[in-house]
Amino acid sequence: MTAGRQPAGVVVTGLGLVTAAGQGADATWKAVTAGRPTARTCSELDGLGVDFACRLADFEPAARLGAALVRRTDRYAQLALVAADEALRTAGLEPAGWDGARVGVVMGTAFGGITTLEEQTYRLAREERVSAVTIPMFLPNVLAGQISLRWQARGPSMTVGTACASGATAIGVGADLLRTGACDIVLAGGAEAPVSRLLAAAFARMGALSSRRSEPARASRPFDADRDGFVLGEGAAVLVLEREADARARGATALARIAGYGASADAHHLTSPHPQGAGLEAAVRAALRQAGASPADVDHVNAHATSTPQGDLAEAGLLARLFAGGVSVTSAKGALGHTLGAAGAIEAALTVLAIVEQTVPPTANLDRPDPRVDLDLVTGTPRPQRIRLALSASSGFGGQNAVLALAPA
């Protein structure tokens, strides 16, 4: 790696995942490494032009959170609370024994409690009354607030909104809180429950969603020549972040190191990526600079790759220029769909697991790579690989970009 002053070490000591593949990191990792897509027809979207999504079946949050809490939380917060529970458990942390004033929470979401907002709007039209907890259920900042409240984390608590880069932004901001000494522990991640008639109709109207209704499981096809749009997905990921020295002092096992973080804006178009990936390139270079690394040091990239014709091509062109085919590239969205504000956190968690297992998952449904994509795409089966430095890249509407550089601990 290139020489240079590197920031204080921040490590991941725990992680939790809830996706359409199931509850728990193990369920998601198994689905992604098997290249098993999770998209299915959803009754919530009956009658719409796009009636399928990647939605978790048999999710019963009351068993984990209690009926009272479930009644006053939107599904996106429930997903996050379950993921946070797993993250703390795997980190070996007992909140009853920590100094809550030194524990921060940074979460990301794009749409907050959109299903609550939608349901209560319908209810208002029918009954001219709404639930008394409508506002705290859909406010985006309540995502971090619910986690802070449940585990008495009294340090900085915030929800960031950078569209589909939100989860990655949250992890980057969380790492910064540790580096500046504002916190000793940070729970960082993202959550989204976007299987909403309003969102499905709006994204479809934009031409952003796949219309492959006859075979929804094959609809999300990152980098594939036959891709025609993304598939809505729901999920949450939470990472426990600590300074490396603190984790070592308490005997915790570090899963990976947050080596760098970079963020940028395209300043090009509100919904279309820069065609040459200029903003994303700036974020990649910033993450590498903080890591004290160069493009030659990168072994693997978990790409944003949503399965849209324009977006995948712009990102692929940038990665090909930066890395000249020397890195393995995958996208989890073929299996899990596009989880919007949660995507960056889910994919960062999967990148951590790839580093732990030294294995790159394949991109589901990537049967016929777009001939214009000149990348070392992982397809078919998982690829054992030595990963010394990996990037997890995210982009979003508004020209938002966030990139995390991760390395073995």
What structural keywords apply?
single chain, 409 residues, alpha/beta, Peroxisomal Thiolase, Chain A, domain 1, 14 helices, disordered N terminus
Descriptive account of the structure:
The chain is 35% helix and 20% strand. The chain has 14 helices and 16 strands. It has helices at residues 25-33, 62-65, 67-71, 75-91, 114-127, 134-138, 142-151, 166-179, 197-206, 244-249, 278-291, 309-323, 333-336, 343-357; strands at residues 10-19, 22-23, 40-41, 52-53, 103-108, 157-160, 185-192, 235-243, 256-265, 300-302, 328-330, 359-360, 376-377, 383-384, 390-396, 400-407. Strands 1, 2, 5, 6, 7, 8, 9, 10, 11, 13, 15 and 16 form a 12-stranded mixed beta sheet that branches. Strand 1 and strand 2 form a beta hairpin. The longest helix has 17 residues, at 75-91. The model is unreliable at 1-6 (pLDDT under 50). This is Beta-ketoacyl-[acyl-carrier-protein] synthase family protein. Residues 7-408 form the Ketosynthase family 3 (KS3) domain.
The CATH architecture would be 3-Layer(aba) Sandwich
Largest sheet: 12 strands, mixed
Q: If you average the pLDDT, what whole number results?
A: 96
Our Rg estimate from Cα atoms comes to 20 Å
How many strands appear in the DSSP assignment? 16
